[in-house]
Design brief:
The complex is a heterodimer of chains A (273) and B (83). Chain A has 273 residues and is of the alpha/beta class. Chain A contains 12 helices and 8 strands. The chains are: A alpha/beta (273), B alpha+beta (83). The interface between A and B is medium-sized, with 27 and 23 residues.
């Protein structure tokens, strides 16, 4: 199958803080786009700490890795692993026994240039942190997706990352909020989407609710988007649709609860509340 | 009943969400400008000292960082005694 888009999109998925859901987002959004018929490749740049192969369930199919491609031990085509489920999806694995310092931003750019000929979407799974691995990951991208969780530490790191992306001349930076718990927002115990957008001042690309079935899917090495009933599946699918250019409304996760309405109502009488 | 009240007052100033927003506002502003809260306090004291050397200050002087989007500004409000 041929690629659909005349201009490939190179998207880095980053967060600063670890454990917020970068790799989960990459695995699911790329699978969703491949299911829609786009040609998609995912590059794992978390060299030394790879996870993407596990989340996609491709760990047994990895032969070569990106460092071997760069060092000329194998060709790019040899290193690309074909996904089990979606024929349009390929993965370029990270090396597990090497370091982030073993490759340079220019070398990543070079690999991306070659991939552009065949793929509509090139996703780069960025390692946590702001060091060499981050610099390698953002070098080739023309769009950045910043993942955060509704908690102060993740937001602070996301803000730092956004600042660094802006210094690197990125003008297309969008936000994905992962692991939102609407009931906690209602109870006044979690930052809301509105709060996060206000702090970080970038456009919202997606909101993924906390969903236990993500852990179950990860255990099995299957993307969550295969589980149509899961709330997180809908959320990742919506992100993929938005990236493909479709407008999808944001479901109102923070729909006003009865309590909230009551509170607003009571404010009419007790404005100091 | 307690739960009911908790919910009603959820977004009041005592909620942890409110607290998180307040702390983030301060910390993000300081991070972006690369200054600590200590530096801000020193700056505030020094600005007021300089003004006090030339004018009589009346009332409570204020020196605050204000942010709009990703931009910040120093908001200095120092009431001066008229003659």
């Amino acid at each position: 199958m041929d690629k659909k888009l005349p201009e490939s999109k190179v998207i880095v998925v980053t967060s600063g803080k670890g454990g917020v859901g970068k790799t989960t987002t990459v695995a699911n959004v790329s699978s969703a786009l491949a299911r829609m018929g786009y040609k998609v490749v995912v590059m794992d740049l978390d060299i030394g700490l790879k996870k993407l192969d596990l989340l996609l369930g491709l760990e047994n199919r990895v032969v070569y890795d990106i460092v071997q491609v760069i060092e000329g031990e194998c060709t790019l085509k040899q290193a690309l692993v074909k996904d089990k489920r979606f024929p349009c999806l390929h993965m370029l694995p990270a090396a597990q026994t090497r370091n982030k310092e073993d490759i340079t931003p220019d070398q990543v750019k070079e690999v991306c240039e070659q991939l552009k000929a065949d793929y509509d979407f090139i996703f780069i799974d960025c390692p946590a942190g702001i060091e060499q691995g981050f610099k390698n990951a953002i070098a080739a991208a023309n769009k950045a997706i910043v993942i955060t969780n509704p908690e102060v530490s993740a937001v602070r790191d996301a803000d730092r990352i956004i600042g660094m992306l802006e210094s690197a001349q990125f003008d297309d930076i969008e936000l994905v909020v992962n692991r939102l718990r609407p009931e906690m927002v209602h109870a006044g115990n979690m930052l809301s989407i509105e709060d996060l957008v206000e702090h970080l001042c970038i456009d919202l690309l997606g909101v993924v609710p906390e969903d236990k079935s993500v852990i179950i899917s990860t255990n099995k090495g299957e993307p969550i988007i295969l589980n149509e009933k899961a709330a997180a599946a809908t959320a990742f699918n919506n992100i993929a649709l938005r990236l493909s250019g479709q407008e999808v409304d944001f479901p109102n996760f923070e729909e006003e609860s009865v309590w909230h309405k009551l509170k607003m109502f009571s404010r009419n009488f007790f404005p100091n509340l | 009943m307690l739960d009911f009240l908790k919910k009603v007052f959820s977004q009041s100033e005592t909620s942890s969400r409110h607290k998180a927003n307040e702390r983030l506002r301060v910390v993000l502003t300081h991070d972006r400008m690369n200054v600590s809260a200590q530096v801000m306090n020193d700056l505030k004291t020094e600005i007021i000292e300089v003004i006090a050397r030339h004018f009589d200050i009346e009332g409570v002087p204020e020196v605050n960082l204000i942010t709009e989007g990703r931009n910040s500004a120093l908001d200095i409000n120092i009431p001066i005694k008229g003659r």
